[in-house]
Structures are given as C-alpha cells and as structure tokens.
Design goal:
single chain, alpha/beta, 2-enoyl-CoA Hydratase, Chain A, domain 1, N-(1-d-carboxylethyl)-l-norvaline Dehydrogenase, domain 2, 3 domains, eight-stranded mixed sheet, six-stranded mixed sheet
C-alpha cells in the first residue's frame, strides 16, 4: 500500500506494507537536493505523521535524484540574512528538526547515493543508521569551512560521536570528503552496498532495529579521547595546526574547535547552542562573504559557454605535443577527468616515457591508497599512447601543444599539425606568454588556433586561461572552454596580449618583491609577510618553485609589449649566470641540498651573489602593500583594456591561478573593500618613494574620482 501524504513538498512519505516507510527527498527545479529554511514546516509535518501512525515500524530516507543524496544547504538563503541572529535562527531550526528525527522511537536509516555533504550529512547523522552505495559519485563530508562557515545543524556535535574526535576535527577543519569505504572504516556509515540493492538493504536494517556503532577505536584514540587531559592535547594540537595553516586569517576553524570542545565538556545542548551562535556570527564575517562570492562565481561560470549561443563541438580524442611536465599533466587530466584517449608526440621516446610516468605515479598512489583498482589503472594507462611522428594523429579533434617557449618552434608545430591532421582540428597552445596571433601568423586556418594556458602542476591547479586571437572562431572558443571544463578546470576567456591576464598581474608583484630584496630586505621576511597576508607561498619562494629561468624568459616579452614597468631587476641576470634556476636545479633563493635543506632556509650565498647586505627596514604592511597594490593596479588596467571580460573573471583567475588570498575575494573585491581612492593615494605615496611604476592607471583614478566600485 502506498500513501503519498505530503502536498507539493520536497519530502514525500510513502507507507509500505511491511511497515517501513520511505521518505523521498526530491527538491523541485534543482539538479541536486539542497536544504532550504522553508522546508522546516514540511519536515515537521512528516515527523508528526510518523508519530501518529502506529503502523509505521521504521523509515528509510533516500533521494529522488539519480546522482545525489543531499548536496548541502542552499547557500543563497544566508545572503538574505542581514544579522547574525537571523542566521543563528536558521541553524537552530535545523538543529531542532534533526533532534526530533533522532528522537523518533522507530529506527530511521539513511540510504545514501551520491554527494552527502554539509546539511545532507547532518541529516544522515541524525538518522540511527546509514548505508551508502559504492558508487564513485558517493562522497560524505562537511565542507562548510571552505565557505568560512561551520556545520550548523548539529554536525559539530554528532560527527565526533560517530568517527571520534581526531577524525571529526580532520574532516571539519579541512572540508575533507570521504568515499564510501573510507566512511565505513571511519564509522560514519554502517554498510556499503551496490546501488541496485541500496533500498533493500536499508529496509532490512530498519526492520532489524537500531544498533550500536561497530566502530572500534584504536588504543591511541582511546588514550587521547576518553579523558579530559588527552582531549586537551588533541584540541591544542588542532589549534596549532589551524593557526600554522591559516595564519589567523580564517575565523571558522577555531570556532569549530570550540563547538566540539563545548559539546564534549558541557553536553550536547550547550554544544548546539554555541554551534548555532557561531554559525550566525560567521555568516556575517567578511571572510565568509568573500568565500561565498567565490562559490557563486564558480557556480555561474560552470553554466557559461565560451561564446553565448555557440555550442561546443565534440572532442573525442586529443593529441599532446611535448612529453615534459606540462604535457604529462595535460595528458593525465585529459584521460582521468575528460575521459578522452590521448596520443602524445615527442621528439624522442624518453619524452613519451616521462609523460606516461606522470600519469602512472598519480594513479599508482590511488591504487596504493585503495581509491582505485589495478585493473582500472591499467585501463586508464592504455588510453595514453605515444609516437615520435604523427602516426595516429589523423583522427584527433584537438591538439594541445606544450613545447618550449620558442615562437618559431610553435609556428612549425602549427604547420606540422595542419599537414598531418584533419582540416578542422583545433590547435591549442599552452604558451604562458607568447601572443597567440604570432603563433597563428603562418597558419592556413588561423580560426582554429587558440591559447590554452594551464598552470603547474596541471593535475592540481584549477585554472585555465583560454586565449582567443582576433581570427579565432567562436566555435573554437566554445569547444576549448567546454573541453577545459571536462578536464576539471575553471576556464576564463582572456584577450590575446603579452602575459594574458594571470602572468601579467603576477609580474609586477614578483618584480617588486625582487626589488625589495635588492634594497636589502631579507628574502624570508618578504615571503613570511605575504604568506601571513594570505598567499600560499611568498613571491621569492614562488620564483624558486616556477623556475627563475622561466621568469627571466617572460620578463623581456612583457617589457617589450607592455612597457618599462615590467622591466625585471638587471641584477637577476647574475642568478641565471650562476645556474640558479630554483627548486628544479636545487639551487635558487632557498637551500635544497644538505641534511637540513628542504627549501625552507634561505641560501645566504645569494645575497653575496647579488651584492646585497640584508638589513630589513620595511614593515610587513609596506612589504605587502607594495607588492599587492601593483597587482591590483595591473588587474584594473587589464579590465579596462578588455583583457578579461569582467571583474569576476579577474578575481577567479587571480585566486585559482596565483593563490590570491580567497578570504579577500580577489584583486577587484579587495580593491572594493579598500576603496579606489585609498588605493590611488597609497600608490601615489609609493610612487614618490620608489618610482614611476607605481603610477595609478587611468581607469583606477577615474574610479576614485567618481567614487566607483568594481561590483555594484
């Protein structure tokens, strides 16, 4: 017997003859289920029906969506909250409902398939048991910290009880997601089964009744977590780790620790009260607002085509030219993420071997950690093949070129591809600085030539710059954007001019840091200041990581095309003459050789080489503002010149491509937070002290005069 007892609700309660009711969650007009504040009434109605119907002996909760359980709460409702109290009320409402669910005297089982995240996991944890499908799409986690928030509907209280204190801290402080088998091992779910039997198994669990967790704590866990002294050690260590990583720039992690501590020391009711209070306060912080802006921006970008109204052409096979680090990375994301076979061409077999090793090393780690089977790894490796000529290239839809930064070499690659591949093949160059129109200058079909600039390491960095020159067709743009998304990238379309966007705004920032070194500021002091500001690494360390020689090649190109302000310090030629290329040659600004050398200690001999006596007179604020405001100034110039389409793309490009501090929102949102006039005044101050390259660009001065902002 089926009895649909709700009206136009996201929650449908279906009574079964065996006494186990099915609660189906299916939010209308959403591809994935998300929880909204207005659902409280619907859920309360369902709970009331459960309490009043003695025929119902148990319930399973499942999703009506094919590929998701509940992906979390609807973040947009937080933007409607004008005060912390309003957001606290939303959290308290969620807590109340999940408490009522947990207190039902019938067994409730969550049948999880697909993403079970944030509020979705909090819902599942309020159920008495959980069973997950073994689908690759099933993941469980509480990623709220990535939005500057915390799990606000009981997550900070229930997760430690299920998986233990240390595991729960790890999950909540990082936003780490668990795959089904990991969740089973952690004690987060009670079983993992094939999707085909998920509901059947959930029903059997409900019929069998509530059971206690079968997770066994290790001896170390018991010693640390079962007494106040041990827990204090865990909390102290977690706090130290958080501060080391965040430099105090993000308030949410410390609030999470306090919520868990309160619950363990003073009971769940007090823990929930603190959780709701902190949740409300965090929604109003500038950090969370900026992180949510990033979330909304990337969500919008996923829906966009390269050119409105122009559909992408199919890309079923790609060719990669060059088997170096970039070529190997491009091959990996093309097979692993985009699921397309790859044909690699290199001038010798060693290059092909290097590219294959790139994928092998990553996949082998997955096999060792049991994220992947050996058979699946072999199957994936078979999709990458290599050649030293163009055999096997006749059916590729896109060529991605990743050879040396040499214009004539890249032009010859275009000619070779046009001679050996089909007429409509797209030629995408992974150049970091050479104008695409020059690469396409001798092409028979320049409309098929485009820039596709990845960032190293390709398997980790999320950004791709799509560079269209004047003759690039709309179809080529849309196809390249769509394929970059398939590779797992967030693409931004930029104009064809030297440095494009990311390297162009990065260059003044790095050059200024270099100038400060030559003026006597200690290398580690500069890097520490900018890491504290919020960058993942400092600018001098970044030079070591990317390669000092790469910077030396790009600077003259930028200077020639864009002017004197891009001139790198002449003294840096001494580094190249001394074969200091950075980490890759184990010789740069930092030490990489010797017992204690791990890239953390400055190689003091570099000061002698540069003829510098480090003394350090600048404040950390001055170090940061001199570097970062030059980046902001150049970003505004790029927007004014149409290099980027809008401020949003500029912010995402800087955050995903350079590591601009996410909690500041990107260079344009940072500019808005300071105010254009403040930035102009600061730049003019530095111009008087340090030179013309600090001159505020015309667009920035106009913004200041008209009291304008980048975002409305």
């Amino acid at each position: 017997m089926e009895n649909n007892t709700t009206k136009q609700s996201a929650f449908t309660l279906i009574e079964q003859d065996n006494g186990i009711a099915h609660l189906k969650i299916d939010v209308a007009d959403e591809t994935m289920n998300v929880l909204k504040a207005e659902f409280l009434e619907d859920i309360q109605e369902v709970l009331q029906q459960l309490k009043s119907n003695s025929n119902i002996k148990g319930m399973i909760v499942y999703s009506g969506k094919e590929n998701s359980f509940v992906a979390g709460a609807d973040i947009t409702m937080l933007d409607a909250c004008n005060t912390a109290e309003e957001a606290t009320a939303i959290a308290a409402g969620g807590q109340m409902i999940f408490n009522q669910l947990e207190q039902l005297n019938i067994p409730v089982v969550a049948a999880i398939n697909g993403p079970c995240l944030g509020g979705g996991l909090e819902l599942a944890m309020a159920c008495h048991m959980r069973v997950a499908s073994d689908s690759n799409k099933t993941v469980l986690g509480v990623p709220e910290v990535q939005l500057g928030l915390l799990p606000g509907s009981g997550g900070t209280q229930r997760l430690p009880k299920l998986v233990g204190l240390q595991k729960s801290l790890d999950m909540m402080l990082t936003g780490k997601q668990l795959r089904p088998k990991q969740a089973l091992k952690a004690g987060l779910v009670d079983d993992v089964v094939p999707l085909s039997v998920l509901l059947d198994v959930a029903e059997k669990m409900a019929l069998a009744g509530k059971k206690k967790s079968s997770r066994k704590a290790s001896l170390v866990e018991k010693a640390l977590e079962s007494n106040p002294l041990g827990r204090r050690i865990v909390f102290d260590q977690a706090t130290k780790t958080v501060l080391a990583k965040t430099k105090g720039n993000y308030p949410a992690p410390l609030n999470i620790i306090e919520c868990i501590r309160t619950g363990l020391e003073k009971g769940m009711a007090k823990g929930l009260a603190v959780e709701a209070k902190y949740f409300g306060e965090l929604t109003q912080t500038k950090e969370s607002k900026q992180l949510r802006n990033i979330f909304f921006a990337t969500t919008d970008m996923k829906k966009e085509q390269g050119v409105d109204g122009v559909d992408a052409l199919p890309v079923n096979k790609i060719g990669v030219l060059g088997g170096g680090l970039m070529g190997g990375g491009i091959a990996y994301v093309s097979v692993n993420n985009a699921k397309t076979p790859v044909r690699i061409k290199d001038i010798n077999h060693q290059g092909i071997s290097n590219a294959l090793k790139y994928s092998f090393d990553i996949l082998n780690k997955k096999v060792k950690r049991r994220f992947m089977s050996s058979a699946a790894m072999q199957q994936q490796m078979h999709k990458i093949t290599g050649t030293v000529d163009y055999t096997g290239f006749n059916d590729v839809d896109m060529i991605i070129e990743a050879v040396f930064e040499d214009l004539s070499l890249k032009q010859s690659m275009v000619a070779d591809v046009e001679a050996n591949c089909k007429d409509d093949v797209i030629f995408a160059s992974n150049t970091s600085s050479l104008p695409i129109n020059q690469i396409a200058a001798k092409a028979k079909k320049p409309e098929n030539v485009i820039g596709l600039h990845y960032f190293s390491p390709v398997d980790k960095m999320p950004l791709a710059e799509i560079i269209a020159h004047e003759k690039t067709s709309d179809s080529t743009i849309s196809t390249t954007v769509a394929y970059a998304k398939r590779q797992g990238k967030t693409p931004i379309v930029v104009k064809d001019k030297a440095g494009f966007y990311v390297n162009r705004i990065l260059a003044p920032y790095v050059n200024e840091a270099a100038s400060m070194v030559l003026a006597g500021e200690p290398i580690d002091k500069i890097d520490r200041a900018l890491v504290k500001f919020g960058f993942p690494v400092g600018p001098i360390k970044l030079l070591d990581e990317v390669g000092i020689d790469i910077g030396a090649k790009i600077s003259p190109i930028l200077e020639a095309e864009l002017g004197e302000r891009f001139k790198a310090p002449d003294a840096f030629n001494k580094l190249i003459d001394d074969n200091r290329k950075g980490k890759k040659t184990e010789k740069g600004f930092y030490l990489y050789k010797g017992k204690k050398a791990n890239g953390k200690a400055v190689d003091e001999s570099v000061y002698t080489l540069l003829g510098v006596q480090p003394n350090g007179t600048l404040s950390a604020d001055d170090i940061c503002h001199r570097s970062v405001l030059l980046m902001v100034n150049e970003a505004v110039r790029c927007l004014d010149e149409g290099i980027i389409r809008n401020a949003r793309d500029g912010d995402i490009g800087a955050i995903f491509g350079i590591g601009f501090p996410p909690f500041l929102g990107g260079p344009f949102r940072y500019l808005d937070s300071l105010g254009a006039q403040t930035v102009v005044d600061k730049l003019n101050h530095y111009k008087d002290l340090y030179g013309e390259h600090f001159t505020p660009c015309t667009a920035l001065v106009t913004m200041a005069e008209n009291n304008q902002s980048c975002y409305g």
